Sequence to fold (274 residues):
Amino acid sequence: MLRHSFKAMGTDIELLLDAEPGERAERAFASAAAEFERLEQIMSRFRPDSELSRLNRDGRITGASHDLVRVVELALAARETTGGRFDPTVHDAVVAAGYDRTFEEIPSDSVSPSAAAARCGGAVRVEGLTVELEPGTRLDLGGIGKGYAADRAAELLALAGPCLVNAGGDLTVRGGSWPVGVADGLTLELTRGAIATSGRDRRRWTRAGEEMHHLIDPTTGRPAGGDLLRVTVVADSAAEAEVAAKAAFLGAEVDMPRVLVTADGRTILAGGLA
Fold:
């Protein structure tokens, strides 16, 4: 089993490839890593020269890349199918909560309170390669963009053999059989598709004594409450799993295999898992 690790999209990326060492495998690793870099340059809200940053700054972008248009369309479709539980327009709410820089740069504790809750649900129009935002609306494509990148990288890596791409907990596979630990004492065997986890136990910080995290409830514009600690979902793609895991964490009905872990330590299997 060959492995290649690097940092991208604000997280650790691990590529596993079931192949013999050699030039073909090295080319596949390089192509997959380059794809993450290319897509980060398009969709990162932390890079001021990214396409997404230009869109958020100007409110409109023409001649957008096909990848930006595709991910925005996927995100808008997900907002519709989840009844707004998944919403790409949470950008200002995430920033207001304190996630205004890469997670590594956020102080774990601060006496400064977070800003007031921000409005979500703004209109977004896509026509051809033009994306236009309602005034005051900005997009955050972090989770779905990471899932999309993992799917794209897996397609490239699979040219050299059965593979797994792990993008900070978003896992997608092509060929082979892969055991994946999703909770204490619970392992799922993934032979196709993807797994993603959303939760408030990893990316969290404190502001003026209040615990904050990055999963925004679009109905309040603030970090979500509730009894769930994290949700893991199995889907056909990492982008789809990302959407479903976040929506399920926020209380949406999700008809997919899933594992829910509650704040008091219970593990609940649903969607056909037993």
Remarks:
- Helices lie at 23-43, 51-58, 66-81, 91-96, 142-157, 238-249.
- The chain has a mean pLDDT of 93.
- The domain at 2-270 is CATH 3.10.520.10 (T-fold).
